[in-house]
């Protein structure tokens, strides 16, 4: 592996940094986009029962709001339940924007890293090709083995850049779809909850 990195030259180091960041972001997003942290099963029904029996203390509301995105939205509904439907929905939309921002955290960076990785690799290849052909002109006569070796080393960065970019883009699209799915389900749950408490 070390020989592989050394053969790729200087541009392998920024590519390695990109790969570490992509892996870190993917692990972080996989963790924070779990259903239990966004949309726990049965939470709406539990809160509805507690609210109907007036068993929700301020401390419980704060704890529920911190545990999941759905909890935060439902607690916002309860906080502003005495408002008319239009004003209540306006307050909820503000919180939904906050939730969406949290769900999409680091996605822009993930997409950027996946996009620039092949470009860095291509730049490394171009620089390697320049070096290979410069060495060719400085020697007397053409040495096919030397030229092939230089081109082979130059192409390593492009291959590594693509190797990083492909999974990065796949995960970026996966997370986008998962966030869209979560937001639709959150909207459904919150809308049903508003129907129950805002009569």
Automatic annotation (TrEMBL):
User: What sections of the protein cross the membrane?
Assistant: 12-32, 110-134, 146-171
Family, per entry: Belongs to the exbB/tolQ family.
Against InterPro entries, the record matches this protein to: ExbB/TolQ_transport, MotA_ExbB_proton_chnl
Gene Ontology CC: plasma membrane
Q: What is this protein called?
A: MotA/TolQ/ExbB proton channel
Q: Name one GO biological process term.
A: protein import
Keywords for this protein: Cell membrane, Membrane, Protein transport, Transmembrane, Transmembrane helix, Transport
| Membrane-topology annotation of the record | Multi-pass membrane protein
Indicate the segments forming the MotA/TolQ/ExbB proton channel domain, all copies: 81-183
Instruction: Please state where this protein is localized.
Output: Cell membrane; Membrane
């Amino acid at each position: 592996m070390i020989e592989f990195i050394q053969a790729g030259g200087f541009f392998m180091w920024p590519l390695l940094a990109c790969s570490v960041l992509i892996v870190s972001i993917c692990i972080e997003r996989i963790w924070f986009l779990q259903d239990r942290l966004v949309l726990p099963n049965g939470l709406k029904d539990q809160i509805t029962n507690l609210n109907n029996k007036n068993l929700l203390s301020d401390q419980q509301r704060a704890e529920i709001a911190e545990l999941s995105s759905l909890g935060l939205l439902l607690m916002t509904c309860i906080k502003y339940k005495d408002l008319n439907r239009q004003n209540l929905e306006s307050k909820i939309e503000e919180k939904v924007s906050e939730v969406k921002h949290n769900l999409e955290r680091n996605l822009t960076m993930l997409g950027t890293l996946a996009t620039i990785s092949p470009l860095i690799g291509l730049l490394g290849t171009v620089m390697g090709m320049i070096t290979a052909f410069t060495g060719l002109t400085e020697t007397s006569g053409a040495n096919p083995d030397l030229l092939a070796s230089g081109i082979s080393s130059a192409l390593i960065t492009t291959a590594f850049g693509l190797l990083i970019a492909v999974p990065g883009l796949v995960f970026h699209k996966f997370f986008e779809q998962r966030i869209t799915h979560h937001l639709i389900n959150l909207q459904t749950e919150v809308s049903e909850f508003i129907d129950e408490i805002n009569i």
